[in-house]
Amino acid sequence: MKFPRRMDAGARNDFGVMQALKGFISRLGKASEVRIQRLKDQFTTLIDRIKGAGGDHPSLTDTGLDDLQKETDEFYAVKNFVEKLPAGLTPPQYFNLSLELLRKLGRANTSMSLNKIYTFMYTAKTKGKYYDVYPVVTMTSVHSTFYRGFNFHWERAPEYVESVHRTYSFFGVRSKFYEIKPHELEYFLQIPTFLPIFISQ
C-alpha cells in the first residue's frame, strides 16, 4: 500500500500493527465460527443419541451448553443482520440499526475494557483534523481523561489521519460503548457506518 505523505514512520508502524491485529482477530473469528458450528453439530448428535436411547439428561445445562447456545444464537443474529441489511441508508441510520441489534444482545456498556472491540458515537473538537463519528475500536490504553485505540475504519482511508492509533476524549463520547466480539468484527466492518468529519479551522 502507498502511504500518504503525512504519515511518518511511527504512523506507518501503527498502520501495520492495526492490519496485523485485524488479521489476527479475523483468523480468531473464523476459528470461533468453525468452533461454534463444530460444537453445535456435536451437541445435536449427542441430543439425538440421548433421544434415541429414550432418555433425558438433566445435567446437560451444567456443562456450558447454555453458553454455547447463547454464543451460537448471537453469532447467527449478527451474520443474518449483516446479510439482510437494506441498501441506500446513511451512516447514522446504519449505526442506529447496529445499536438496536447490540442492545438486544446485551452488549451496551458504560465503560470500556482493554483489548476488547467497541463501537460508539463520538464527536471531536480538534480543529484541522478528521474524526470518525462511529468508530469501531479496539482499546489499547486508558488514561485519566482519554482512551487510546486502533480504529479499524481508518484502514479504508488512512490518508485522512496522521495515524490510525487514535485518542478518544471521555468528553467526546456521545453514547454507551457497544461490544463487538472478535468473531463478529468482519461482519460489523461490512456495515457502512464509517463517517469521517473534518473540523475546519
Instruction: Give the total of domains.
Output: 1
How do the strands of the widest beta sheet line up side by side? 1-7-2-4-5-6
Secondary structure tally, helices: 4
Tell how many strands the DSSP assignment holds. 8
Q: Which residues form runs of ≥5 with pLDDT under 50?
A: 1-5
Q: What is the straight-line distance between the termini?
A: 30 Å
What is the H-and-E element order? HHHEEEEEEEHE
Please describe the biggest sheet, giving its number of strands, its sense, and whether it closes into a barrel: 6 strands, antiparallel
Strand content: 15-25%
Estimated structural class: alpha+beta
- Gyration radius (Cα, Å) is 20 Å
The coarse overall form would be elongated
Helix content: 40-55%
Task: Give the averaged pLDDT, no decimals.
Answer: 85
